[in-house]
Amino acid sequence: MVTIKSEREVELMREAGLILAKVHLELADMIKPGITTMDIDTKCEKLIRSFGCIPSFKNYDGFPASACVSVNDEVVHGIPSASRYIEEGDIVTIDTGVIWKGWQSDAARTHAVGKIEPEIQELIDHTRESFFEGIKVATAGGRVNDIGKAIEDYISQFGYGIVEDLVGHGIGKNMHEDPEVPNYTCRNRGIKLQKNMTLAVEPMINLGTWMVNWSDDGWTVVTADGAPSAHYENTILITDGAPEVLSLTPEEKKLYNVR
Ligand code: MG
């Protein structure tokens, strides 16, 4: 079911988003060679709880941690591990979410660990940029699948693979609500966007093939060819004009020139 939020609910989702943005900034600061993916999760949960929030990922469908931490060819849903050390040259995606007074926010970032290959840094940058290209068409009266078309139109020039097995989603009281928000061109334009809908838009982009596999742990999604993958996600609010990006700080919004 697609839900339209009241002004009061939007305000709570704004608060949730700002907290999540701050959590991500603090986690970005700790990324360095020699830490484990479990270290990232431990810090993530501590931060989320320090803001008075509940980590939404923890125990979601049985997921054992507060953050999905995915390294290199892991696309999403990496399970944090005390034996998984990150090394110079790796890339690490942190995907996490908070619940604030019953309202959710969901966001992901991919980070470089030390010095990485230029083509992998470009993958990270282009993936982030594709999010901002996608949300340019996310306005009331527009259609949800136009977002994915805008993402694909931007990404196609680089020859990357766009993951199709996983998509963005509506969000509100629940982490995953309707509608689905694909990151690729669909045969139809999807439902009409309305003011005060809230969506998690999250391009997952591979340096090689778009195809992915599920690991034996039941969670971790990896690229089929072993090439690296980047992910960038924010929770956005549909308005009559440009969407508001709820899970960025005011400084980040200025940097990326969004509301
Ligand atoms: Mg999401």
Explain what the structure shows:
The protein is of the alpha+beta class. Helix content is 29%, strand content 24%. The chain has helices spanning 7-30, 37-50, 118-135, 145-155, 250-256, and strands at 54-55, 67-71, 74-76, 91-100, 103-112, 161-162, 168-170, 177-181, 198-201, 204-206, 212-214, 221-223, 229-231, 234-237, 244-245. Strand 11 and strand 12 (221-223) form a beta hairpin. Helix 1 (7-30) packs antiparallel against helix 2 and helix 3 runs antiparallel to helix 4 (145-155). It is globular, with a radius of gyration of 17 Å. It starts with 6 loop residues before the first helix and ends with a helix. Bound molecules: magnesium ion. Magnesium ion (MG) binds next to loops.
The gyration radius over C-alpha positions equals 17 Å
Counted beta strands? 15
Give the integer mean of the pLDDT values. 98
Oligomer: single chain
Strand content: 15-25%
- Main pleated-sheet profile: 5 strands, antiparallel
Termini, distance in Å? 26 Å
> Which stretches are poorly predicted, pLDDT < 50 over at least 5 residues?
none
Q: What's the arrangement of secondary structure elements?
A:
Layout: H1 7-30, H2 37-50, E1 54-55, E2 67-71, E3 74-76, E4 91-100, E5 103-112, H3 118-135, H4 145-155, E6 161-162, E7 168-170, E8 177-181, E9 198-201, E10 204-206, E11 212-214, E12 221-223, E13 229-231, E14 234-237, E15 244-245, H5 250-256
Antiparallel strand pairs: 1-4, 2-4, 3-12, 4-5, 6-10, 7-8, 7-9, 9-14, 10-13, 11-12, 14-15
Helix pairs in contact: 1-2, 3-4
The structure holds magnesium ion.
